[in-house]
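Person: Please work through this fold.
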Amino acid sequence: MNMNRGNPFQKEVVVDSWPDFKAVITRRQKEAETDNLDHYSNAYAVFYKDVRAYQHLLEEHDVINWDQVLQIQGLQSELHDVSKAVANSKHLGVKLTSFKAVQFFPHPLLPDTSSLKGSAPRLTYLSVADADLLNRTWSRGGNEQCLRYITKLISCFPSVCVRDDKGNPISWSLTDQFATMCHGYTLPEHRRKGYSKLVALTLARKLQSRGFPCQGNVLDDNTASISLLKNLRAEFLPCRFHRLILTPAAFSG
């Protein structure tokens, strides 16, 4: 859907055959400017009907740029073993993180914003000026590549933010390049005020109004987010979301 709406991350789709394909990989267009250390943007999403077709794409076709730090993500159980086997044969290290996969359907009524009437706090959206704060507070962040990535996400995709009386963000969530809700966060001193629920519902409604699914993922030990998602009546899917970070030996020091 993002590719059909301006394609801001310069994605393209590769299949094993056409029209009867058995494996699909999305990747950055080869002409796109890249940073070999930026696994946030050097991202591949995978779906397959036949895992052998996916393995064949990895092994036989010029599909993956194995000279970069990159990520491969998907929802299918064989993804890790197959990707790891091919990556190891090319001398890349592989780090797997697995999450609960979640989708939810916002209530047709808008969330209650009565607590945000007046000048502050107020419900709005993120700006690129907030990127440094998001980079510092994200468990995956804290580096130059992530700062650049978050800046582009804010510029390209829907976000929601609660701001205090000075205009500073205190609670937020944004959308990533795969239309997944991500980096839902509330500053510690502003927690237990309902902001996270409000932000999540508002962003979900915004995505829904544009025709996108309301989807996300959460780590098994993130009990606060799991509790919030249950409160929102989210559906925890039987599959899991897998993210692999692959690092060439040249960058593993």
User: Anything to note?
Assistant: The CA atoms of residues 59 and 86 lie 7 Å apart. The radius of gyration is 19 Å. The chain has a mean pLDDT of 92.
